[in-house]
């Protein structure tokens, strides 16, 4: 049993919010309930959130109801067709994420202390491995901080946050924009966007095209990804109606296969277009749309020292990037 006002990260998996009159209604917050709350806030669907948490849907629903009773306000608006965050729920979400992140860092530090293990920095790569700054930054960090164990994980199109949404990364090299409540970021590079077409496509030999020239072509629909991110790569802000869909997929390979076969086109950043020779494909710069930013992102609410060092180094490496 912990002393009054302490935080318990292990065992009971609870966190004492305090004993002041203002917080007596929520004197102890169960970290599992916070995990349930964040998952549902991100999925906005009980079935998907329960599947992500590997729990029964009824258990999730009951946990949310108990949490709402404990904090004293409604977190979600529920109807037969939709789930949405209330204003109070939206305001509380960053604090819930912050507490979960602190608990994860505390547990990880305890493990390192108990086992004598090295400090670990987890870096998510969200379709950014081919960006020129990525290997430069990773090499520079390894040289400057040789005692830190760096673990990188590649994330596909389904997770443009690079693991930050699920708190599996300390920092991530990402391509905004995307839905990212509670995330902060610094842009370190920008690169043009190219349309991927088959090698025999009428546009394949062009040095560049305008968006108007490709807007009415059939496009690939990337399923299961963030809607804000998808809208950026469909250039939705320039459209007066939804794109004509020629193929659907959820990976970069799906996009390239659709372009190669002539079923659909899609946009990729310059680093992917130029990463290697792509048999059966051509990449043509779209000259009149905004480029794709590359950013270092992290969850707000405090960073472990290795992650802070990584951000500082990233700013220095970005400043030394060749322009253009």
Key terms:
324 residues, alpha/beta, Arc Repressor Mutant, subunit A, D-Maltodextrin-Binding Protein, domain 2, 3 domains, 5-stranded mixed sheet, 4-stranded mixed sheet, 10 helices, 15 strands, 36% helix, globular, disordered N terminus
Low-confidence stretches: 1-14, 16-25
Can you give the helix content as a percent range? 25-40%
| Topology, number of strands | 15
> Termini separation (Å)?
59 Å
- For this structure, what is the CATH homologous superfamily of the largest domain? Winged helix-like DNA-binding domain superfamily/Winged helix DNA-binding domain
| Element-level helix/strand string | EEHHHEEHEHEEEEEHEHEHEHEEH
Q: What's the CATH architecture of the largest domain?
A: Orthogonal Bundle
Find the structural class using helix and strand composition: alpha/beta
The major beta sheet can be summarized as: 5 strands, mixed
Mind telling me the C-alpha Rg? 22 Å
Overall 3D geometry?
globular
Strand content: 15-25%
CATH class of the largest domain: Mainly Alpha
Q: Calculate the mean pLDDT score and round it.
A: 87
Q: Give the strand order, joined by hyphens, for the main sheet.
A: 6-5-7-15-8
